[in-house]
Design goal:
This protein has about 450 residues and is mostly helical. The chain has helices at about 1-25, 35-60, 65-85, 85-90, 95-100, 105-125, 145-170, 170-175, 180, 185-205, 210-220, 220-230, 235-250, 255-280, 280-285, 290-295, 295-305, 310-320, 325-340, 355-365, 370-400, 405-420, 430-455.
Length: about 450
């Protein structure tokens, strides 16, 4: 026992030292600029090591492992890959990649991402969650009629929303330019999120896995495929990761080979999606992209890792401005209260607290980042604290997923957290509330039925 306690203390101390070093290095990033490539390789390797330790203790498909893996791709995929490329290969990268390489804030952004990742690791480790025991997917523990009933209602609503979204967007829009689809894809993304939440409820309710797979093939998969064809990956990718984690907790075991093939296939798809996003699927099929032909997997990793540029953009945009001190996190609750009270609200384009929009107006549609938003609120302290909070939540989700309705709750919370990795916090509370509402309804239904079931028969 003492040996294990010492091992845990040493491990936590090492990660705390990494977080501290990343914090201090972010403050001295400009002095270290001449070592950029070495530091990019080092921070990327540290991120991989942190993820590997979580995978070893909790498995590939724990909430924490999934979160750290996705985070690494979006924040280290570019810098780590570029640091390993030859000078000739780097010189052939597109203009936006050259801008990132020359940006003096890229290295500082990598340090901030390392700080965040180390704090997520610490938060998850402090929560005490460990590897999940083997579960029989047909065990009676997975029987909850109320969750099933509500789950089918959510699936029906999601299917209706899907039909409505397609009718509003138009089938042809999915095959055109991404710029056109981007203006209309909100309904499609909402439909995918609702369908995914319905599947989480069915999984937690005990529906046979074959029936769940068939239901997903009829409802969720076609919408996800259409969204990918249109060039948008947010809804399909993050819900797919959440569903894989939920299936694992339901008792399905994916082999390492299957996971590797899924990751490679996903990266290949994303590599092709970059061309689709620029040209639309019709032109993409009739033309040839040298970038995708040469190495679509590397192309996808570099393109996803470019999300780190949003951190650099936020650092530059914040110069000469005050930190927000939590205002961007309070914004969704304030706007929600204003809406309920009938108070007129500023448009998001004019609201300075919606930093993602401010970045968009200056730097264009580059997305956003959980690290960037934490930094603009409380600097390095915000990055560390928000990372710790995310880690604790992920650890608790993994531990509670073993008993109902923990699996459905995990899906309702994990998917918005994954989306938040490269987006603003603004919609996260709404997504979580929408995911939790059916679970609460199922709980109320169960309480209402229990007295009737156990009431004594009349004499």
């Amino acid at each position: 026992m003492k040996a294990r306690s010492l091992q845990i203390a040493v491990r936590r101390g090492a990660v705390l030292a990494i977080a501290s070093a990343a914090w201090l290095s972010s403050l001295e990033a400009q002095r270290l600029a001449r070592f950029d490539y070495v530091l990019w390789a080092l921070t990327g390797a540290i991120g991989l090591a942190l993820t590997a330790t979580v995978v070893r203790s909790r498995g590939w498909l724990s909430p924490t492992s999934a979160y750290l893996s996705v985070f690494w791709l979006f924040h280290f995929g570019f810098t780590f890959t570029v640091s390993l490329m030859s000078a000739r290969a780097v010189a052939e990268l597109p203009y936006w990649a050259q801008d990132m390489i020359l940006d003096p804030d890229t290295t500082r952004s990598a340090f901030l991402a390392t700080l965040f990742m180390a704090c997520v690791w610490l938060g998850a480790d402090l929560s005490g969650s460990r590897a999940m025991a083997k579960v029989d997917p047909d065990n009676e523990r997975w029987s909850a009629p109320e969750l099933l009933r509500i789950g089918w209602l959510v699936m029906a609503f999601g299917a209706g929303l899907s039909v409505f979204a397609i009718s509003q967007v138009g089938v042809g829009t999915f095959f055109g330019s991404y710029d056109v689809f981007f203006e209309q894809n909100d309904l499609v993304t909402w439909a995918i999120l609702v369908l995914a939440n319905g599947l989480f409820l069915l999984l937690d309710g005990g529906l046979p896995l074959k029936t769940i797979m068939m239901t997903a093939l009829i409802t969720y998969v076609p919408m996800a495929a259409l969204c990918l064809i249109g060039g948008s990956r947010t809804g399909p990718m993050f819900t797919a990761v959440g569903l894989a984690v939920a299936l694992h907790h339901r008792g399905i075991r994916f082999s390492k080979t299957a996971l590797l093939l899924a990751v490679v296939g996903g990266l290949l798809t994303i590599g092709v999606l970059r061309q689709v996003r620029e040209q639309g699927v019709t032109l993409a099929l009739s033309s040839r992209s040298q970038q995708v032909e040469e190495n679509p997997v590397v192309s996808a990793i570099i393109e996803m890792g470019a999300s780190l540029s949003t951190v650099s953009a936020s650092l530059q945009w914040l110069e000469g401005r005050e930190f927000f001190h939590g205002a961007t996190y309070a914004l969704p609750f304030i706007r929600g209260a204003q809406r309920l009270a009938g108070i007129e609200r500023l448009s998001l384009e004019d609201d300075p607290r919606f930093v993602k929009e401010q970045i968009y107006q200056v730097y264009g549609p580059i997305g956003y980042s959980v690290v960037a938003e934490a930094y603009v609120n409380f600097a390095e302290t915000g990055v560390a604290l928000f990372g710790l909070a995310c880690g604790v939540v992920l650890g608790v989700l993994g531990r509670r997923a073993r008993r109902q309705p923990g699996l459905a709750v995990m899906g309702a919370v994990l998917v918005p957290m994954l989306i938040n990795i490269r987006n603003s916090f603004l919609s996260v509370p709404v997504w979580i509330c929408i995911g939790l509402a059916p679970i609460l309804l199922a709980g109320l239904l169960r309480l209402w039925r229990s007295p009737r079931i156990h009431a004594p028969a009349p004499a």
